[in-house]
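Sample 3 of the quickstart, ligand NAI:
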Amino acid sequence: MFTKNVRRVALIGTGFVGMSFAYSLMNQGGADELVLIDLDVRKTEGEAMDLNHGVAFAPSNMKVWAGTYADCQYADIVVITAGAAQAPGETRLDLTAKNTKIMKSIVEQIMANGFNGIMVVASNPVDILSYVAWKASGLDKSRVIGTGTSLDTARLRYMIGQYIDIDSRNIHAYMMAEHGDSSFVPWTNVYVGSKPLLQMIDESEQLHMEDLQGIYESVRDAAYEIIERKKATYYGIGMALTRIVKAIFNDENSILTLSTYLDGEYGHSDVYIGVPAVINRLGIREIITLDLNEVDQAKFDKSANTLKETMNDAVHPYL
Ligand SMILES: NC(=O)C1=CN([C@@H]2O[C@H](COP(=O)(O)OP(=O)(O)OC[C@H]3O[C@@H](n4cnc5c(N)ncnc54)[C@H](O)[C@@H]3O)[C@@H](O)[C@H]2O)C=CC1
Ligand SMILES: CC(=O)C(=O)O
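Result:
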């Protein structure tokens, strides 16, 4: 793994999410090579041409081409954004059956070509499809990562930042569990700089505990709101993917809320779910286990059980 000096990313899925990631990666100089792979070869060729015409304005000379699964052999990271997206009103879990089949067939083709790097999954339902990718790849659990609640966490930090009028990069807060309707915020673990948000609210006349539920709901429902207005969400997740890829290549040991395999952490096993985790060049180094209060642990349990039940019906029989 990572034996060459060239950082190669293979992107499977050149739709809205895939190409937003590609554009963001190019603009941030996040890789040396990017190979684009999709069922729609003509569109993918067009995407490669279009991106290449921006190289002259990019911070580095990233090589982009429309390729095949054979190109995965020398990829350090494969990013998977292929599959069906939600139609207005559809939940992420509604995509399970359709996208499980697609994910399995994609991962089998990646592995058949000798891939031996880190797999990053964004396709929905991302927690379940990360599990599918892990099983179908045979890779170690540390090397199959879902984007999890990284986007939800970015949305949460933005919305808290707006509420208290502080730079969202100084808000330390996590959206946890399913990237979907059963996600939650452990509010007792939210800090502004190093001050607990709940203490800040307690001391303020302008800020109110009751508003936190509204912030949570806005984050939880953000995708529905955006899909209803513009049919898809893609810039935020494109930037989240770039952040994850850079954390891997730069061996950052950064903490991101990623969909990660639990093996007893938070009281659950054999499930991928969004938790804060340390990520570096080898993938997931470790899971950060927060001290959840009883109410938050019950929310976590409910979310993990929802994922497990969905997998029992729609995934395990096919793996
Ligand atoms: N994890 C997250 O936070 C987010 C995840 N998503 C998910 O990302 C996925 C992609 O969304 P969009 O890009 O908007 O959809 P899209 O429809 O624009 O693109 C999907 C692409 O997948 C390709 N594809 C389908 N089956 C394939 C196969 N077997 N092999 C190779 N390529 C295949 C299609 O040709 C298409 O280019 C969806 O599942 C969506 O729900 C979207 C936003 C955020
Ligand atoms: C579509 C989706 O998963 C999101 O924007 O959160």
